[in-house]
Amino acid sequence: MKKVIAAFLFLLSFVLNAQAPKKFYTRFGGYGHDIGYSVVQTLNGQYAVTGSTSSFGNGNTDVYLALVDSMGWVRWEKSYGGFNNDIGRSIIQLKDSGFVIAGYTNSFGSGGYDVFAVRTDKNGNLIWQKAFGGFDWDFGYCVKESNGGDSLIICGNTYSFGYGKSDGYIIKTDINGNLQWQKAYGGAEDDEFKSFTLTYNNQYAFAGTTKSMGDTKGDCWLMKTNLGGDSLISYSKQTSRKENINDINETNDKGFILCGGADTSNGAPERTDSYLLKVDEFGNFQWERPYGLGIVADDQHHSMTKSKTTNETYAYVRKTDNGPQALDPNLMLLNSGGYYIAQTSYGSLSNEELFCIESTRDKGYILFGYTFGYGAQLSDFYLLKTDSSIYGSNSSMISVDEVNKPLQELSVFPTITSDIINIKLSGKSKILTYFISDLTGKLITERNSIVSDESINVTNLIDGVYFLTIDNGSIRKSFKFVKLK
Asked: For residue 20, what is the DSSP state?
């Protein structure tokens, strides 16, 4: 019992000494084009991300899945797809700790593109992958799990079914990816759903853009359905200007805020401003708020999330295009009335976009997209963590590359040994500590400090697989080795 208590206290002190930073940024990827679209905080406080990669996998681009720990380390990464193009646009974590990704593919299925869904276990191992759609093009943009956890809902758009050129598209499957029903919504022109939310009274609210119900340039569109996909309310903001919607959140008053972009140039050269639309639960218009950066700027909200702070605050990430200057991601905090609280921009001198923002349990935010900066070969995945205030810039945040440097400048060898494991440091280093654990997480050795190269005698260990874990007081890194006689 004393050993158990001692081990517990040791682990507790270790966690306290290696608290996750509230603000950091990191990039990762390969030598191709890597673009991030969606991120979710996992049940154990890490981050699962999805997007598309041409650096890894089988085809032109593949669906990408990675697990990033709370320190910004990529713990593992996987790719899924065939020989053509496969894109992951939305990710959720299931109650069993596994993941579901929705997007689209032209490697599998019936048509040019089909909705693509992938389910994995918590380690990214493939459980199933399915394609849905018809003989034309079909796209998936958002996936969520039903309240009961026994089914999945995906929304997007379809050229294969429906009433017009493109229609809003909803698919329901069971948790094993078996199709239960699919429905199309819209008119004679192009219509699409980009996001949806499950409402307080067990209905679905889908948001997107319609060119059938108003001006053919595009109008904001809200569709509410019951759990069977039967339409209850359809609302379009019918104006003569071009509008598009990318995301939706339910508000405390049971209404909805929709975000996207709107052309507010009023006859001048077309310019898109970030745009918010508020409607009540019955689809009645309440207010709209455009946010622009001036006559030369072109911007729009990509994503929004409700803050986990006590007040009803919403965080938005938008693309800002300042003409000859670089694309920059801009974060905004607005109150429930759509009025300004704070904003700040992040990024390098090169192009960046962040397509997804989610609230984190420490009341901050996690964002995911891509960057051409920070030494990226082409475009790399770009993950950004902020605190609740969002204030700052990349220069005021922790770069994971900088924090990890002392651990990147070391090597552990050999990976299979009968007697000695060597830790070799490169150059100067702060004090590092290490310990050894088995596959179950049981501590085999106590914590030891090192400031120079070290050789560890493991002859007393029984044959098996072990982890040598090293930390620098802020982060930790584990190396697997095998002990054999």
From this structure: P
